[in-house]
Amino acid sequence: MPEAPTGTRPLPGGGEIDAHRHDDHQIAYPYEGVISITTGAGTWVAPGNRALWIPAGTVHEHRAYGRTDLRLIGFAENPLGLERPAVLAVTPLLRELIVACSEEPEDPLLRAVLLDRLRRSPAPEHPVHLPAPRDPRLAAVCAMVGADPADDRTLPELAAAAGTSDRTLARLCRAELGMTFPQWRTQTRLHHALILLAEGLQVTTVAHRCGWSSASAFIDAFRHVFGHTPGRAFRP
Known about the structure:
Layout: E1 7-11, E2 16-20, E3 25-39, E4 42-46, E5 50-54, E6 60-75, E7 86-89, H1 92-103, H2 108-119, E8 129-131, H3 136-147, H4 155-161, H5 166-177, H6 181-198, H7 203-209, H8 215-226
Antiparallel strand pairs: 1-6, 2-6, 3-4, 3-5, 3-6, 4-8, 5-7
Helix pairs in contact: 1-2, 4-5, 7-8
């Protein structure tokens, strides 16, 4: 496995980095745009006030939404003590340290300050993590909702379309996704909302395309998960 790089990587909207892994841990931060990582366990997504933690040895691929200025920091050590991917909150100070280290990767003082700040960071957040379903019935339902987040069919209706029962689907959601179906659908809608916002769509358009009845309902749901409005999604 190669060493995890430290540096900058501009990506166009829809740009991808194919599946790979590396010996070191890594932080991927979208200075502009939105970035996601996908592993065998699911997908994590981060706008400009979040970063993605990628543990050493994790096979993952990147995808950019909107023109993205990706900043990468590789670590031989694990300052967060995390062995699974995670979404990290990025404060203004942490943002500046990540940007500076990505532009001056050989500066030992900058790296030391960044490592110290990461060790002092609060617990990581998981605001938009889409776990990967294994059961084909659940995977079929997840694919239907993922293809059209505004699909408002109930769990029994989706279960019938997948050839199973709503009770079975509810059980599979808890067992494989670690959440209820309504919680998963909200996560999926927020995931798509971040992508559409990165592509420059207006909040009202995003709200309706992702299944909310109004812009205000979308803003409330977004604020509940991220702690701020959609308008601040790309600022630290």
